[in-house]
Amino acid sequence: MAQTTALGKVYLLGAGPGDPGLMTLKGKALLECADVVIYDALVSPAILAMINPEAEQINAGKRRGRHSKAQDETTALLIEKAQEHAIVVRLKGGDPFVFGRGGEEMGDLRRAGVPVEVIPGITAGIAAPAYAGIPVTHRGYSCSVTFVTGHEAAGKYCPQVDWGAIAQGSETIVIYMGLHNLPHITTALQTGGLSPDTPIALIRWGTRPEQAELIGTLATIVAQVEAAQFEAPAVAVVGRVVELQEVLGVGSGK
């Protein structure tokens, strides 16, 4: 990618999972003085309301089957705006470096000669379970946690997930974007050695007012999803820590 002369700087900013109270102070300050904000689909309206009203706002969101901009178009847009404005914010749900393609965008911007800085955000894989009363680690239940993408259809940038290795390698498994592939994932985890009775929690719209949970086991959760018409976006938590939700989930987070 050719070098360019940039007037401004691009900030890869994590918006967190949705609750505006979880936005970092540095992130909020950037939104309030930004010239341009290019934001993702899962950024909550409460976070978007923090943006400088004079700023140009561009939706670059990607949802399954509904991509408003291709990834290369988004990167080209960031480079273009950095040549025109001082503060360009790329606003991403959660954390830019946790399944957010932030590393790819940062690499492309640096190769183009555009100054770029990452502002981390709270990732949904920790926050959504916490608001549901599920600690991803607990001394009596789990001393390890694995974060994995369940969106294997995005194989262009992510290699095939080794679910068997994950089943054996961690006591808590947090799966992002896995609802569409849930039948395959639950079967693969059982084939990898997990009991059909292993608890699993699905948490939709984590930390937002509309947050909802569905609790089951690897053997039952697919049928429960169909019966409840439970829809994305959701993270899944697999492991014994899910058992704590019955006690810790009362009044937690929300």
Q: Tally the helices: what do you get?
A: 9
Q: Give the class from helix and strand content and strand pairing.
A: alpha/beta
Succession of helices and strands:
EHEHEEEHEHEHEHEHEEHEH
Q: Estimate what percentage of residues fall within beta strands.
A: 15-25%
The H-level CATH homologous superfamily of the largest domain, spelled out, is Tetrapyrrole methylase, C-terminal domain
Which strand order do you get reading across the main beta sheet?
3-2-6-1-7
Taking pLDDT < 50 over at least 5 consecutive residues as the criterion, the unreliable ranges are none
CATH topology category name of the largest domain: Methyltransferase, Cobalt-precorrin-4 Transmethylase, Domain 2
Average of the residue pLDDT scores: 91
CATH architecture grouping of the largest domain = 2-Layer Sandwich
Describe the global form: elongated
Number of strands: 12
Rounded to an integer, what's the Rg over CA atoms? 19 Å
- The CATH class of the largest domain is Alpha Beta
What is the straight-line distance between the termini? 45 Å
**DSSP helix fraction:** 25-40%
Instruction: Report the biggest beta sheet as strand number plus sense, adding barrel if it closes.
Output: 5 strands, parallel
Question: How many domains comprise the coordinates?
Answer: 2
Multimerization state: single chain
